[in-house]
Each structure stands twice: as C-alpha cells, then as structure tokens.
Amino acid sequence: MILVTGGAGFIGGNFVLDWLANPKAEGIINLDKLTYAGNLATLASLEKDSRHIFVHGDIGDRGLVGDLLEKYQPRAIVNFAAESHVDRSIHGPADFVQTNVLGTFNLLESARAYWSQLPAEQKADFRFLHVSTDEVYGSLKAEDPPFSETNPYEPNSPYSASKAASDHLVRAWFHTYGLPVLTTNCSNNYGPYHFPEKLIPLVILNALNGKPLPIYGDGQQIRDWLYVSDHCSAIRRVLEKGKIGETYNVGGWNEKANLDVVKTICSVLDSLKPRADAQSYAEQITFVTDRPGHDRRYAIDARKIERDLQWKPQETFDTGIRKTVQWYLNNPVWVEGVVSGSYREWLQKHYQ
Ligand code: NAD
Ligand code: DAU
To answer: How far apart are CA 129 and CA 180, in angstroms?
Structure first.
C-alpha cells in the first residue's frame, strides 16, 4: 500500500485515478479532510475498487495517522494535502499555516515514528514524497533564467510562504533524522477535476455561463503550465527512482501570459461550443483589480528530472488545453456538484 494525503483534491485525485488505472498497482489509503477543495465525486469511479481505501481526516491528527500507518504498513507517503489557493491565503492565511506548516510537521513526526521502528529492509525502502510548488522561489524578471533546484527560496504570498516552510521542515527531517524524503516543486497544473476557483476552470465555466472572464491587472503575468497527468507521472517517477534527500523541479516548458491563456480558452470554446450570438467568448474578457503582491513570472527548468530520471511531459499546452475544455463540456454533473453555496460565497466575496 501507499498512503496518499489530499487525494480528493485536484492533483491528488488525478494521481489516485491514474495510479489505480494500472491493474497491477498497489492499493492506496487516501486520507483527506474534505475541505471545500476536496470532492469525493472525483473518486466516484473507484467506489467498487477494493484497492482504494478512503479515510476522512486531517494530516495533523497524529493519533489517526499513527493508527493508519500501523494498520496498513504503507511503503510510502505521498503528501498532496494542503490549502492551495493564493487568493484565499490573502483573505485568510491562518488555515494555510495550520495545514501546510503544522499539518506537514505533524505528518512528518507520524512518519518518523512509524519509519524508525520498521525492520531494516522496509526501513530502507520507505519514502516520504512531499508535493510542493515553484512559488517557493518567488518571482522572476523577464530576462531571468527559469527556476532551478538551487534557486534561493523567496516566497511572496502567505500560500507560498507556508509551502516554503513545509519544504524546509521536510528537508530538515532528512538531514537531522535521516527520514527518506523526496520533494517535488511543480509549476501550474491544469486539467480535469480542477476546482473552479483557479484561473483555467474559472474562465471555462464563466465563459459558458455568460459571465465576465476576470483578468488581474494587465494580464501579462507569466505562468508555466503543466497538464495534470504529466505531473502525476513525474511524481510516480520520483517515487520510483528519485534519490532520497533530493528535490526535483517539474514543469512543462510552457510559459504563457495569463491574457494569452484566456484568449486560447476562448478560441477553443469558440470552435467546440460557439456562443449563440456567434460572437467570440473573448468579448467577455474583463480587466479587474490586481492580486496584492502578484508574482510576475514563474518558469521551471526541468532539466534535472529529465536528465536524472528520464521524465518528460507528454502534453503540449495546445493538446492539454483542448482536452481540458472538452472535459468540462462533458462533465456538467461534476461541475454542478462542486459549485456549492460556499463556492458562490467565495466568488461574491472575492470578485465583487
Ligand atoms: P487542492 O486544493 O485541489 O486539494 C487539496 C486537497 O487537500 C483537498 O482534497 C483537501 O480536502 C485536502 N486537505 C486540505 N487540508 C487537509 C488536511 N489538513 N488534511 C487532509 N487533507 C487536507 O490542491 P491541488 O491543486 O490538488 O494541490 C495539491 C498539492 O500540490 C498541494 O500541496 C499544492 O501546494 C501542490 N501544487 C499544486 C499546483 C497546482 O497548480 N494546483 C502546482 C504545484 C504544486
Ligand atoms: O505555480 C504553482 C501554483 O499554481 C500552485 O502552487 C498553486 O496551488 C496553484 O493555485 C497555482 O497558483 P496561481 O496563483 O498561479 O494560480 P491561479 O489559477 O490562482 O492563477 C493563475 C494566474 O491567473 C495568476 O497569475 C493569477 C491570475 N488570475 C487568477 C484568477 C483566479 C487572474 O488573472 N484572474 C483570476 O480570476
């Protein structure tokens, strides 16, 4: 077995589905607190799969995590669980410190207690893989080279600061206690089951619902986009072949300005589901107040994982974004299930 945390969220959910799509794969214990971002509907296709054991709980609950580790004896922990939305971290940073910093600390301590009493062979094989972000490196200028694993940490938002803190804890648990950890720092993901508070799914759904497509500031902020199944394959590769104590940057070599991303989504929608009035969805683009402290540019140098672990993304932005738009068109029931009252309250609070 492996223990996955946050496996009802966007990337964790895709990871669990992709993992179990392999009939020979080991089982997964999926520990998730089911915050607003966790959706069991994402995992509905696994209802009859006995290899998937869902547990509702918090990574910071040492009693629960200790019991799960003792009962299932997993050979690895893959930690996706986090508060992940930058805008929410600006409105309310406390949950980010609670889960991303204290939660990761408690999970590391539970893992250490379990790992330290394992028999020698299992102890040597055990891995703690921490899923992190490129945002810990701060913001790049237009002329800067992309982030490499040796860039200094310069987090700028409460979210990225909390993730940076968690990365430091993971690093320290390796250097001080020898816990066999691996860390991945990935760029912006997109794809199926993405909660519609983030740019790409928000724009797809607002476009279809005839609402404004909000662009923060001048829309020239740059992100490096990676299709989510490519991130999942990178994590599997790092888990299988990564060198303990190392960090791996994961990215798609797909730097795009936000305005271009939104225009691309509009043109894909124009061809797949034209507006009734035959106008382009781009007509709905609306410039709104910028995010405070908005990082200008992220870009990932993914040469280390390519060279050392022979991993490369499969999707280009063009193929991935088309698949993503089509997925949202094909899955109105999933969308309906996640846009609850609390989602609508968030939109009202943030965009009014
Ligand atoms: P998400 O917000 O969609 O999902 C997070 C999941 O964690 C949810 O299911 C939530 O219920 C669960 N969770 C939150 N607090 C928890 C707790 N205390 N205990 C147990 N479960 C808890 O996030 P995501 O976009 O899937 O991101 C997953 C991980 O990948 C995060 O660590 C994030 O920092 C990192 N990451 C995300 C991106 C991206 O573009 N989305 C890119 C790089 C790295
Ligand atoms: O870089 C990796 C990070 O990518 C992850 O660590 C985070 O968990 C993930 O949420 C994502 O962070 P971003 O802040 O880059 O993603 P978001 O989708 O919120 O925004 C993408 C860009 O689009 C960003 O520059 C802000 C802008 N934006 C976002 C929203 C929601 C808009 O212009 N308008 C919007 O309405």
So the answer is: 9
